[in-house]
């Protein structure tokens, strides 16, 4: 297998390790929750605080927090009957995502140096569209 294909397969496998993380981070509402957690004055926020900050209902906030927790992006600390949610700074998914982004960056730089993409002239038109076999 050529090195380029090997690298792309390795990258695809890396992407497949983090489906819950990509799903969680891909939603604008969950991004707002993460930003609220990051910009809050103290570490940890309760559902009512997040609901007020994001202008979501409490059940909606709880739903999104569950997805973020299942992805390993946030954690919850319980004090009595109160639950405080915070970004998990120790999560292995953060280092895994960094490694994935670093790998993508490395492949993009190497590909650019090699002149990628190299289009097969008989397959593509000058506009980059796939040619019809009946032409």
Please describe the topology of this protein.
Blueprint: H1 3-16, H2 19-25, H3 28-39, H4 47-54, H5 58-70, E1 74-79, E2 82-87, H6 92-113
Antiparallel strand pairs: 1-2
Helix pairs in contact: 1-6, 2-5, 4-5
Describe the strand arrangement of the main beta sheet, using strand numbers: 1-2
| CATH class label | Mainly Alpha
Unreliable segments of 5+ consecutive residues: none
Beta-strand level of the residues, as a percent range? Answer: 5-15%
| CATH superfamily heading | Winged helix-like DNA-binding domain superfamily/Winged helix DNA-binding domain
Largest β sheet strand count, sense and barrel closure: 2 strands, antiparallel
What structural class should be given to the helix and strand makeup?
mainly alpha
The percent range for helix content is 55-70%
Describe this structure as you would to a colleague.
- With 135 residues, the protein is mainly alpha-helical.
- It has one domain (1-135): Orthogonal Bundle (Arc Repressor Mutant, subunit A).
- It has helices spanning 3-16, 19-25, 28-39, 47-54, 58-70, 92-113; strands at 74-79, 82-87.
- The protein has a two-stranded antiparallel ribbon.
- A hairpin with a 2-residue loop joins β1 (74-79) and β2 (82-87).
- It starts with a helix and ends in a 22-residue tail after the last helix.
Throw out a few tags for this protein.
two-stranded antiparallel sheet, 56% helix, Arc Repressor Mutant, subunit A, 135 residues, mainly alpha
């Amino acid at each position: 297998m050529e090195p380029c294909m090997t690298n792309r397969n390795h990258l695809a496998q890396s992407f497949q390790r983090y489906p819950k993380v990509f799903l969680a981070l891909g939603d604008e509402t969950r991004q707002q929750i993460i930003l609220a957690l990051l910009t809050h004055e103290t570490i940890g926020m309760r559902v009512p605080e997040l609901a007020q900050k994001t202008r979501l209902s409490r059940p909606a906030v709880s739903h999104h927090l569950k997805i973020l927790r299942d992805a390993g992006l946030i954690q919850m600390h319980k004090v009595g009957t109160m639950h405080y949610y915070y970004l998990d700074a120790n999560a292995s998914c953060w280092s895994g995502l960094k490694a994935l982004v670093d790998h993508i960056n490395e492949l993009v730089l190497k590909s650019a140096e090699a002149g990628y993409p190299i289009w097969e002239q008989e397959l593509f038109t000058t506009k980059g569209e796939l040619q019809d076999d009946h032409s």
